[in-house]
Specification:
Layout lengths: L1 H21 L7 H4 L15 E5 L4 E7 L2 E4 L10 H15 L20 E7 L2 E10 L5 E5 L5 E4 L1 H5 L22 E8 L5 E7 L2 E4 L2 E2 L1 H13 L4 E4 L6 H4 L7 E8 L5 E11 L4 E6 L5 E5 H8 L3
Antiparallel strand pairs: 1-2, 1-4, 2-3, 4-5, 5-6, 6-7, 8-9, 8-13, 9-10, 10-11, 12-16, 13-14, 14-15, 15-16
Length: 305
Amino acid sequence: MKRILLLIAALVLALALAACGSKEPEEPTAEDSGMLTNSAQQSVAEASYLEYDNGQITCRFRRDEDGWKWVDNESFPLDVSYVEQTLTELETMSAALTPLEPTVEAADAGLEDPDRYLTVTVGEETTTLRFGTQRDDGQWYMSVDGQEGVYLASDEFMALMDRSVYSMAVLPTLPELTDDNLTSVTVRGSGEGQIARMTRTDEGWISENRPVPEKAAEIEAALAAFTFDSCFNFDPSPDAAPLCGLDAPTAVITAAYVNSVGTETAVILTLGMLREDGFYYVTLNDDTTVYLVSQDKAAPFLALL
């Protein structure tokens, strides 16, 4: 009988161990892992809305079938790589997110009433991160709405929210302007009768009936290298022109050329006021968008006056 009881006990123990071995492990929750998860388990890269505020500027973006757009003005030429970079860094941070142990009180972390936040919508769910004070090691205290822990965000991630939307603009480029298609270059200064004009003839470039091959070469090089440095104001109000000196410009540069279909057209650059930092306010053709161009890029054209 004793042997039978021992066999029964061994069988019960074996069954119990088998049951324990077959038990499915519990999935970690968002609170356990610190992950920014959603019920559909979609990647942060699949977000449809992103908004952030660094305490001074607020940027809002939404994605539709045509891609990402700036919510405040959907015609803005947004370089979507900036939005995608923020989402990529957010997902990377999310994967390694763990609450501080021991935790920090919200008041000590600047999280009682923070003015910095980031909101992202993935699928049907929206997550908001709030950022407090910066630690001595450069990291920032962070909380996640709906979670009790305090986390850390890198200073590199926070720097992504210091960009204004104008720094994300796709800047226009000039058409290819060379000796083969240029026909004339005219610069009108702000003074009365202040004008310089170069024209290409069969004999070469002339100005005031004199050949100017060296000046022509300099202008061609300046046009080939010309780029806008940044966007200053998109779709500005009528008050922007006089404030930027564009109602009485420093110079108007007109480069006439023959386009690819054989039609003569022109590129017009209007230089407004020179800022203290060495940049001119500039517009392109009849577009009211105000750009910034460095003084050295404008110098070859102004040298003609």
